[in-house]
């Protein structure tokens, strides 16, 4: 059974299926469920105090996002991180983030860079061991700004569709290689300075360099092939 104290209350302002999807996604990316865990519709419905319909809709959405695997006649299982997952998400992220950075570097102006600097200041102020969750939050907050200023709605939607998986990858990377204090601020500051040049090619080159580091670390993890 799912303990009541790990299930947040559902607000009522949005469509129920969307709310359930958001809650389950957060529970998966927040490691409330473990890789390979069987997610039973009846237990989820009881825990969230909803019918099985919204649960079924949410699980279908989460399968599309790569968080859940639906197995015929067996139900839903939390996806397990594999080398194939890492490679596919990395290459997709590289493609869309290079496009986003090349566009954002000419659009951000003062406001966008002020937002980046605020995140960088938080990264810089960390002078003790940082919780992996906080490291992931700051990392994604920085990159969200690039997408927010790229002026490309479809790129933003693709980013939103893989952001949860990137969260899982970053958490695994930070847990296995806890070097955020050494590289978090410096690497993101280098990326910020490249964006500030206003040169799309320089911005794209900086993105390539930046996300390659995380990819190389993830490749060193002992993950199944697929």
UniProtKB/TrEMBL annotation:
GO: which molecular function terms? DNA binding
Q: Which organism is it from?
A: Kribbella orskensis
Lineage in the entry? Bacteria, Bacillati, Actinomycetota, Actinomycetes, Propionibacteriales
- Which Gene3D superfamilies does UniProt cross-reference here? GntR ligand-binding domain-like (1.20.120.530), Winged helix-like DNA-binding domain superfamily/Winged helix DNA-binding domain (1.10.10.10)
What is the protein name stated in its UniProt record?
DNA-binding GntR family transcriptional regulator
Domain HTH gntR-type, residue spans? 14-81
Keywords on record: DNA-binding, Transcription, Transcription regulation
Highest taxon listed in the record's lineage: Bacteria
Q: Supply the Pfam families for this chain.
A: FCD, GntR
């Amino acid at each position: 059974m799912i303990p009541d104290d790990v299930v947040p209350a559902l607000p009522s302002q949005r469509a129920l299926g969307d709310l359930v999807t958001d809650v389950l996604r957060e529970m998966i990316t927040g490691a409330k469920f473990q890789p390979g865990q069987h997610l039973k519709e009846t237990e989820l419905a009881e825990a969230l105090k909803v019918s099985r319909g919204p649960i079924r809709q949410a699980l279908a959405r989460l399968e599309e996002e790569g968080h859940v695997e639906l197995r015929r006649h067996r139900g839903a299982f939390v996806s397990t991180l594999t080398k194939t997952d890492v490679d596919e998400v990395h290459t997709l992220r590289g493609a869309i983030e290079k496009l986003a950075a090349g566009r954002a570097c000419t659009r951000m102006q003062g406001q966008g860079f002020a937002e980046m600097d605020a995140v960088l200041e938080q990264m810089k102020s960390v002078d003790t061991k940082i919780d992996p969750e906080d490291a992931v939050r700051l990392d994604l907050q920085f990159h969200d700004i690039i997408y927010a200023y790229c002026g490309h709605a479809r790129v933003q939607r693709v980013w939103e569709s893989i952001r949860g998986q990137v969260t899982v990858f970053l958490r695994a990377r930070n847990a296995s290689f806890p070097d955020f204090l050494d590289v978090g601020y410096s690497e993101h500051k280098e990326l910020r300075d490249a964006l500030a040049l206003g040169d799309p090619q320089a911005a794209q080159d900086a993105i390539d360099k930046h996300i390659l580091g995380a990819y190389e670390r993830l490749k060193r993890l002992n993950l199944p092939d697929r």
